[in-house]
TrEMBL record:
Its EC number is 3.5.4.2. GO terms for cellular component: cytosol. The record marks H220 as: Important for catalytic activity. It comes from Methyloprofundus sedimenti. It is an enzyme of class 3 (hydrolase). This is Adenine deaminase. Belongs to the metallo-dependent hydrolases superfamily. Adenosine and AMP deaminases family. Adenine deaminase type 2 subfamily. InterPro entries: A_deaminase_dom (IPR001365), ADE (IPR028892), Ado/ade_deaminase (IPR006330), Metal_Hydrolase (IPR032466).
Length: 326
């Protein structure tokens, strides 16, 4: 259709993608055999059939189990390279990639293996595909503060490869305040900050992310609409939200796409962006997210173009670079 073609041609930046969430069943199956890591599935089809979630936690359990097949630097390279090829197909010119070191270090994989594999693919992505990128290291919020501090310490010899720290995993019961001191330390090391907040958790968690963690962007943030003062702050301070429509449907944050508040947020003047979150698990890469959102909410071409423009404005590229893209 015309709107699909428009979306496919639109130059986009992606700002909310977990590299472990781009692990397609085919690669998971292949790596499980190569590395002799057992997964509870007999075939690629069986893996896909298992992707039915009721909430964030039911997804995370499967996502962490799947990530266990990643062992060598080459595995992390291949995972990242496969995602960059999808970026090319989706006309993503710039991507800011999350990764979760603790998912790997806590099962005995060296911190350096993970970051070196991902980083090498990102460098090749720039040189061979022309896709620019930044890497964001996320702390798993269900783990404790000390574990996050250890992870930050491990990152200290790789600061040239990381632009920011983030916060992900199980939101409810693990407020941003739990990581105030870790984020303060990360900022003193020259890193920017972002955090998942207001995906399943309340607006109070978005306030904490802003006030305590000093974030440049809120990841998800769809529950901000419940708090009028918060919406005003997000608009006046131009704090971007990285929204993941297909993720929100698959994890039952909204019952169906026609009930998603994306258009409402956009119309209020928030700097909202469309992203894929964990595309291998949620049914599509960034174009699929744009398409399904556009169709369900009747987004106009102007609204789609604004969403794409927002993605560059909200990115961590330099102002000179932004002028080129916008
Ligand atoms: N890790 C991967 N995807 C996530 C999400 N949508 N929310 C929290 N943690 C995640
Ligand atoms: Zn996410």
């Amino acid at each position: 259709s015309e709107i699909r073609d428009f979306i496919k041609k639109l130059p986009k930046a992606e700002l909310h993608i977990h590299i472990e969430g781009s692990l397609e069943p085919e690669l998971m199956f292949k790596l499980s055999k190569k590395n002799a890591i057992e997964i509870p599935f007999k075939s690629v089809e069986e893996i896909r059939l298992a992707y039915k979630f009721n909430n964030l936690q039911s997804f995370l359990d499967i996502y962490y189990a799947g990530a266990a097949v990643l062992i060598t630097e080459e595995d992390f390279y291949d995972l990242t390279w496969a995602y960059l090829e999808r970026c090319k197909e989706n006309n993503v010119l710039h991507t800011e990639v999350f990764y979760d070191p603790q998912t790997h270090t806590n099962r005995g994989i060296d911190f350096d293996i993970v970051i070196n594999g991902i980083h090498r693919a990102l460098v090749d992505g720039k040189n061979k595909l022309g896709i620019s990128s930044k890497l964001i290291m996320c702390f798993l919020r269900h783990l404790d503060e000390a574990d996050a501090f250890t992870t930050l310490e491990q990152a200290s010899s790789h600061l040239d490869k990381i632009v920011a720290v983030g916060l992900d995993s199980s939101e409810i019961g693990h407020p941003p305040s739990k990581f105030e001191r870790v984020f303060e330390k990360a900022q003193s090391m020259g890193l920017l900050t972002v955090a998942h907040a207001g995906e399943e958790g309340p607006p109070a968690y978005i306030w904490e992310a802003l006030d305590l963690l000093k974030v440049s962007r809120i990841d998800h943030g769809v529950r901000a609409l419940e708090d009028e003062a918060l919406v005003t702050k997000l608009i006046t301070e131009k704090i971007p939200l990285t929204i993941c429509p297909l993720s929100n449907i698959k994890l039952c944050v909204f019952k169906k796409m026609s009930e998603h508040n994306y258009r409402k947020l956009l119309k209020k003047g928030l700097v909202v962006t469309i992203n894929s979150d964990d595309p291998a698990y949620f049914g599509g890469y960034i174009n699929q997210n744009y398409i399904e959102t556009a169709e369900a909410l009747s987004l106009s071409k102007e609204e789609l173009a604004l969403s794409a423009k927002n993605s560059f404005i909200a990115s961590f590229i330099s102002d000179e670079q932004k002028k080129i893209y916008c």
